[in-house]
Amino acid sequence: QVQLVESGGGLVQAGGSLRLSCAASGHIFSNNAMGWFRQVPGKEREFVATINWSGSSTLYADSAKGRFTISRDNAKNTVYLQMNSLKPEDTAVYFCAADRSLRSVLIPTRPGAYDYWGQGTQVTVSS
Length: 127
Known about the structure:
This protein is mostly beta strands. The protein is 0% helix and 46% strand. Strands 2, 4, 5, 6, 9, 10 and 11 form a seven-stranded mixed beta sheet that branches. The protein has a four-stranded antiparallel beta sheet with strand order 1-3-8-7, with no helix packed on it.
């Protein structure tokens, strides 16, 4: 059974940094694209960043470019999201997700393209 567990969320002041982690288990990770999304109450889940199976290719939402960095450690079955220069509008529940396609050349940005999801971790940025 696939399990994704996020950690690293919390409360931080504007301009601060957080590093989110997502640990995967259950025969999925090193051959699969991984993504980070976020959601605030009343809004749709929003794409943040994604990384291909090898870590050689990444995509970012415009809101994340230049501030967030996605990375992965396939030996540890973990994907990270380093978030710098945080803003109050970054406040959300952050989810990691896995695409079950194996070694795909595509790295999806739509939530519907991902097959497995974590439970989310709350990030709150105070002004």
